[in-house]
From TrEMBL:
It comes from the Bacteria. PANTHER family: CALCINEURIN-LIKE PHOSPHOESTERASE DOMAIN-CONTAINING PROTEIN, METALLOPHOSPHOESTERASE. Residues 18-190 form the Calcineurin-like phosphoesterase domain. Pfam families: Metallophos (PF00149). This is Metallophosphoesterase.
Length: 223
């Protein structure tokens, strides 16, 4: 069982203070997008815990960067990575951190020319890659995905009717294939209204804006 601090979209001002240490018992920080990177670095450094994130539609474009032995490059040229220092970008990846297997898929539905926005077709292609990666891992060690970390919610499962906040239909299929214990997403601001958890099959779908602390079982066996 891992205790996880999950954040997205809205900065919790108290976490800039000593109140951050109220969460000193967490094992991992997860971020579902659209937060200042210095805020994420602060959380990880103050708590001295690993940080895994996916980018939101208001984050900078982090695609095309590679890290080999600590050297960041883009198109073969050494560069400074603009993402949060020391963090793991799980976008379109499957990573094992703090005893959890986490599949990630960032971004929102495309509504203008900004970064980290995808058409349904584009996101479906990315989702298939994540599914393949998870399948290869499962064949190797028999473990499934514990957490699906996304910026946007699935279509019709906690999204909104306006264009920018419409969910992705392909995420419903990805949940069905991966069957994670939790799907954690941001993008949908509560605006003072309680956003209840939802379920897709056996998966608990949680809107984490601005902050949730969750106990998540690890070592998800193959089903």
């Amino acid at each position: 069982m891992a205790r996880v601090l999950v954040v997205a979209d809205e900065v919790v001002e108290q976490l800039w203070t000593d109140k951050v240490f109220q969460h000193a018992d967490v094992d991992l920080v997860l971020a579902a997008g659209d937060l200042p990177f210095d805020y994420l670095e602060h959380l990880a450094n103050a708590l001295d815990k690993p940080l895994v994130f996916v980018p939101g539609n208001h984050d900078v474009d982090l695609s095309g960067y590679s890290n080999v032995r600590g050297l960041w490059t883009k198109s073969g040229v050494p560069v400074r990575w603009p993402g949060p220092t020391g963090a793991v970008n799980a976008d379109e990846r499957v990573v094992d951190v703090a005893g959890l297997r986490i599949a990630g898929l960032g971004g929102s539905i495309r509504y203008n020319k900004g970064p980290n926005q995808w058409t349904e077709r584009q996101q479906a292609r990315r989702a298939r890659r994540v599914s393949r990666l998870a399948g290869w891992r499962r064949l190797r060690d028999g473990r499934g995905v514990d957490v699906l970390l996304t910026h946007s919610p699935p279509l019709g499962c906690g999204d909104e009717p306006d264009g920018p906040h419409k969910g992705f239909d392909c995420l419903r299929g990805l949940v069905s294939r991966l069957q994670p214990s939790f799907m954690l997403h941001g993008h949908i601001h509560p605006h003072g209204v309680v956003r209840p958890d939802r379920t897709l099959g056996t998966t608990r779908v949680v809107n984490v804006v601005p902050l949730k602390v969750l106990d998540i079982p690890g070592g998800h066996d193959e089903r």
